[in-house]
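name: query_chain
kind: protein
chains: 1
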Amino acid sequence: MTDSSKVKDFDKRVETLSKSIASVPDFPKDGILFRDITTLLEDGNAFKESIDLLYEIYKDSGADCIVAADARGFIFGSVLAYKLGIGLVLVRKKGKLPRKTRAVDYNLEYGYSTLEICEDAIKEGQKVILIDDLLATGGTAKAMVELVNEAKAKIISFAFIIELFDLGGKKVLNDLGVDVLSLVKFPGH
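structure:
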């Protein structure tokens, strides 16, 4: 289980991050309070702090690679992989990867989509950290876990910058036996 208690001033640092995330009412539709990660990215100190926190948590994890979700997960995943000195594996929407892929369909609120990963990107037995910007209902995250499990890799943890804690995504992942780390937690709307 991921332990953030050893990170100096973790709660204070996370509070600073939460203040850098804009809340946009009625986007993308009426009644939704959208948590906008782009304002965190635009704030150099907040962006650096988010990566520094992830690095401090995972620096001794023994991970072999980061598996990042298209597209905002790429931002955090690439910088964290760089800091950890490990590779980055991309999970993309169908048809975006040039090599032979492994795919999984998953449910969206109004339909379904497909995620793919290059078939040879993760080796059996490798230890991986998955990362995405936001955890809501867990549909995309669950599909990513399925792709990694098909490769017979070991999931250390799934990291998120934001978790909408009352939408059930963490439970979905925990039910799959996946450790979840979320830096900032907000209610979902």
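note: The mean pLDDT is 96.
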